[in-house]
Amino acid sequence: MKGMKERLVKKMKLITTVKTLKQGLALHKSSIDRTIHHLRDEIVAESSQIKGSVTPRFLEFEAAEEQEQEQNLEDDRGILLEFEENCPPGGEDSVVFYTTSLRGVRKTFEACRRVRFLLENHKVMFRERDVSMDSEFREEMWRLLGGKVTSPRLFIRGRYIGGAEEVVSLNENGKLKKLLEGISLVESPCECCENERFLICSSCHGSSRLLADHHDEESGNDKMWTRCRECNENGLVKCPLCT
Ligand SMILES: [Zn+2]
Ligand SMILES: [Zn+2]
């Protein structure tokens, strides 16, 4: 009987121990669970914080595309870099075309017309400087090219491209199109001169002379003709927008 009681007590103790152990395990488990929860929360919080700096796939793709476009632009600039740097006034970022509207020398006139046609065909805006209409343009062209050259002469973004022969061949091998990339397209005629390139001088009404006060003792005249300072030798003013 005594032995049985002892066994019972032992068993009871064991049960309590197991119970305590179980409780302890449960406690331990819940603490582990809490830790896991905590860690998970931390991870979620952290990842939502860095979300802004992590680039989603589609943005990565856009960035790559942009980079490629930049590269292409650089390549095109590369073509431009093959040409000698020689910038006409106001030609840093535009197309400047020296031409003549005089039919005197047929070959020159035809060459100018060909280059003009190509530029118009590419629908780009260009500054047209008619050397037969303004001696300043002729001198400007001669100064740029270091001699008494004839038109046409084409400049793109401050670089000298060439005369008719060069421009025609660049058009044929597709390089002209690349050289003209990024130049604004023509949307409407020049708002200032309607593509006439010159305006009739409003000071002298195109006569290029003005009657100014001047007393001459001998003749007794009080007025004399002077050269108008507002315009060129033809009584014309260059269009500020398109020449
Ligand atoms: Zn104009
Ligand atoms: Zn004038």
Automatic annotation (TrEMBL):
Domain of life: Eukaryota
Domain Glutaredoxin: 95-161
InterPro entries registered for this protein in UniProt: Glutaredoxin (IPR002109), Thioredoxin-like_sf (IPR036249)
This protein's name: Glutaredoxin domain-containing protein
Organism listed in the record: Cardamine amara subsp. amara
